Amino acid sequence: MTKGWTAVYLREMIILKRRLAKLIPAWSVSPLLYLIAFGYAVGRHVNVGGHSYLEFLLPGLAAMASMTQAFAIAGEINIARFYWHIFDEFQAAPISNLAYVLGEVLAGMTRALLGGGVILILGALFGVVLSYNALFLTAFLLNSFVFASLAVGLAMHVKSHADQTLLNNFIITPMAFLGGTFFPLSQLPVWGQRVLEVLPLTHATKAIRASALVEPVYAGDYLILAGAGCVCFIFAIISVNQARS
Amino acid sequence: MIEVKDLTKQFGDRTALAGVSFTVGPGTIFGYLGPNGAGKTTTIRILTGLTRLDKGTVLLNGYDIGKDPLKCKAQFGLVPQHTNLDAELTVEENLLIHGLLHHMPKPDIARRTEELLDYIEMNDRRKVLVKTLSGGMKRRLLIGRALLHAPGILFLDEPTVGLDPAIRRRIWGLVRKIQSSGTTIFLTTHYIEEAEFLADRVAFLDTGRIVAEDSPAALMAGIGEWAVDFLDDNRLQTAYFRSRDEAREYVVSRMDGLTVRRVNLEDAFISLTGRKIL
């Protein structure tokens, strides 16, 4: 059922490799600005739960990168669909929709790993090196799984590249700012915290931050991410199936 | 072999295909001829599993596209109307990805790549990014890519559209060469001379229906052998004749501004549908 996913994945990786020299500096700009503006300048004397603001911010930025870079696979898919018409080549090949989705999701997760790596290197340049353990990596990968799957599904529903920008504006940007990247959600009223717990990024940020700061992690965050990932993955398969007609 | 029965497709309230049936025998070039919007591309998209059919059956080498789509897709290669090569990949990488999509082992992909790059005369371009290729080269690469997994059936959707006459002739030569290896070819086109030159059998498609199907010679013979074009009330009209003498007599009986020529497939299409292909 998954036979052929390597072709989909390899295609994305060849393109990624070809563009990497341009992408890495591009991926560094926003996190660098956040680290300088919020972490270094504004948060220099701020302490959050016994940690410097830079130590608090860095795992949040890593969680955000795993979301944005994984979700960026939607843009790649739509360039392939609308500009190069390559989606038809996949659809006319003897591979299942599951294989196609798997290849694209893994490509999104690879992008996320690279984007996250850039954040951790930038953090190290600012003198912040946290504990990048198995729990950290698991939460990071689960979060990228959620957003890569969501990206593949939504990419099948957009009708143009402009629609893709709208998705970023309405889904990714609000989540980036409200998912606990920049401030502890405990500072919000209880009802606000409950609302934001609906967002997968909130759980990813909590899990990634707790593991990086070697604090107790909450298994529920991992389960919610895994569950959301499975739901989004199934949504992606259904969406690819519908896209054929 | 391609067997299509009662193929029907509706887009909203527009009927794209209304009960199309035909059979393409092994090793045949089947020309599917019709004006823009007749349903040619819809047919090819259904036959290749890119669009779902509403009603009917499609069997490719005995496999049903509705029931066994993956086995069906392993039977054919597709050259689409619009180039769908990966512009950001090299010629060789495009072939590699296609081979992997068709579950070919890497050594087989390497061997077939060598053979096909020779076949389409693009060996010197293997490391070049596709976006730098000319239109004619992209077409040749599309054909090469479609043949990589050695399919028994090749779908060519308007394979020479937008190409200059010299390159078109070169592609025709390539198509003939492919047929000689026993490949069944389904060709959609609205170029009359392309269908006349290449097709063993031709089906005329008009507003989602096949109005005639036969060999090009038989379709043309049905209306005569010679045609006389003339202006009548500033509109170009054509009269058909069985012999050149009959055509000549007709020319003599009229004033001037007449052209005598051989009947072509477009004449056959017009006499059946009252419409032009182009």
Explain what the structure shows.
The complex is a heterodimer of chains A (245) and B (278). By secondary structure, chain A is an all-alpha fold. Chain A has helices spanning 5-42, 53-71, 73-83, 86-91, 97-125, 134-155, 161-178, 190-196, 200-212, 219-243; strands at residues 47-48, 51-52. In chain A, 77% of the residues lie in helices and 2% in strands. Chain A has a two-stranded antiparallel ribbon. In chain A, a hairpin with a 2-residue loop joins strand 1 and strand 2 (51-52). In chain B, helix 3 crosses helix 4 and helix 3 packs parallel to helix 5 (135-147). The longest helix of chain B is centred in the middle third of the chain and has 16 residues, at 165-180. Chain B is globular and about 70 Å long. The model of chain B has no long low-confidence stretch (mean pLDDT 89). The chains are: A mainly alpha (245), B alpha/beta (278). Chain A binds chain B through residues 3-4, 6-8, 10-11, 14-15, 18, 80, 83-86, 88-96, 244-245, and chain B through 48-52, 70-74, 76, 78, 80, 82-89, 93, 96-98, 100-103.
Question: How is the secondary structure organized here?
Answer:
The complex is a heterodimer of chains A (245) and B (278).
Chain A: H1 5-42, E1 47-48, E2 51-52, H2 53-71, H3 73-83, H4 86-91, H5 97-125, H6 134-155, H7 161-178, H8 190-196, H9 200-212, H10 219-243
Antiparallel strand pairs in A: 1-2
Helix pairs in contact in A: 1-2, 1-5, 2-5, 2-6, 2-9, 3-6, 5-6, 5-10, 6-9, 6-10, 9-10
Chain B: E1 2-11, E2 14-24, E3 29-33, H1 40-47, E4 55-60, E5 63-64, H2 69-73, E6 76-79, H3 91-101, H4 106-119, H5 135-147, E7 153-157, H6 165-180, E8 184-189, H7 192-198, E9 201-206, E10 209-214, H8 216-221, E11 226-232, E12 235-241, H9 244-253, E13 259-262, H10 265-273
Parallel strand pairs in B: 3-8, 3-9, 6-7, 7-8
Antiparallel strand pairs in B: 1-2, 1-4, 4-5, 9-10, 11-12, 11-13
